[in-house]
Design brief:
This protein is an alpha/beta fold and about 300 residues long. It is built from eleven helices and nine strands. α1 packs across α5 and α5 crosses α11. Catalyzes the condensation of carbamoyl phosphate and aspartate to form carbamoyl aspartate and inorganic phosphate, the committed step in the de novo pyrimidine nucleotide biosynthesis pathway.
Length: about 300
């Protein structure tokens, strides 16, 4: 891989190789008192986040440090962006300063792709950590890793993605990656929270959550992204929760083996109840743990070279 920008054109072999590497890294670090590998010693990884983040930013930082890379954090508020510097000039500055990899989160869809274009001749690779409502490829990879771990594989599995699909880069990334890996995806949402052109995605669409739950192997609940909404998309939070929230009664509709996922942050009591979020079949904390190993694997494939051993 040269960059990791999207799951839409990510080959199945490449995605599987990243997931297999993440599994191997997880086994390698299991039980170690000092979780440190020398694989990326001498490499510099810069995280550049223009939006707030807890899970993604922290797990990338931990991933880089566990691989012995030098990790530098840049925030919009503490950089020259606050003085009016453009994204392009910031990226070129970081590359000139010695960045081997730039991990970027940006509110504008397509920002990571523009960044990769500007850095094409520099040797610096780019990882998309979320761009607007477009893509979040490492989240999809860690979700796939969690499902493989819980279900034993993805081929032939049926996954429901429920809620605010319109504003969710996680939903878009998961749709394409899960389809590439052989899973069937059903989107469950009110019509107002489905994006234009969804009929061209490799999915089926439903508006009835109760009808879909008995036939799925996993259900991914999405947060309602009120910060991206301008106007009314549903009557009220209470009515949304009644129609599309996953509570204890709906949990009983799922097959015994079914897994509950949530990319976080959770709005407990709206799209998911605390009883469900903390239930044994919920793999939400496992997603966070697997996120570190998956992001280690991504950095390995981008920076370590084919001759290196993870």
């Amino acid at each position: 891989m040269r960059h990791l920008l999207t799951t839409e054109n990510l080959a199945a072999d490449t995605a599987t190789a990243v997931l297999d590497t993440a599994d191997e890294l997880k086994r390698t670090l299991l039980g170690r008192e000092v979780r440190k590998l020398p694989t990326l010693r001498g490499r510099t990884v810069i995280t550049m986040f223009y939006e707030n983040s807890t899970r993604t930013r922290v797990s990338f930082e931990i991933a880089g440090k566990w691989m012995s890379a030098d990790v530098v954090n840049v925030s919009a508020g503490g950089s020259s962006v606050g003085k009016g510097e453009s994204l392009r000039d910031t990226a070129l500055t970081l590359s000139a300063a010695g960045a081997d990899c730039v991990i970027v989160r940006h509110p504008a869809s397509g920002a990571a792709h523009r960044l990769a274009g500007w850095l094409a001749d520099t040797g610096t690779c780019v990882v998309n950590a979320g761009d607007g409502t477009h893509q979040h490829p490492t989240q999809a990879l860690l979700d796939a890793a969690t499902l493989r771990e819980r279900l034993g594989g993805l081929a032939g599995r049926r996954v429901a993605i429920v809620g605010d699909v319109l504003h969710s880069r996680v939903a878009r990334s998961n749709v394409y990656l899960l389809a590439t890996l052989g899973a069937e995806v059903v989107l469950v949402a009110p019509p107002t929270l489905l994006p234009p052109g969804v009929e061209h995605w490799p999915v089926t669409v439903s508006h009835e959550l109760d009808a879909e739950l008995p036939a799925v192997d996993a259900v991914m609940m999405l947060r309602v992204q009120a910060e991206r909404m301008h106007g009314g998309f549903f009557p009220s939070a209470r009515e949304y929760s009644i129609a599309y929230g996953l509570g204890e009664a709906r949990l009983r509709l799922l097959p015994e083996h079914a897994v509950v996922l949530h990319p976080g942050p959770m709005l407990r009591g709206m799209e998911i109840s605390s009883v469900v979020a903390d239930a044994p079949r919920a793999a939400i904390t496992e997603q966070v743990r697997n996120g570190v190993h998956v992001r280690m694997a991504v950095l390995y494939h981008l920076l370590a070279g084919e001759g290196e051993q993870a």
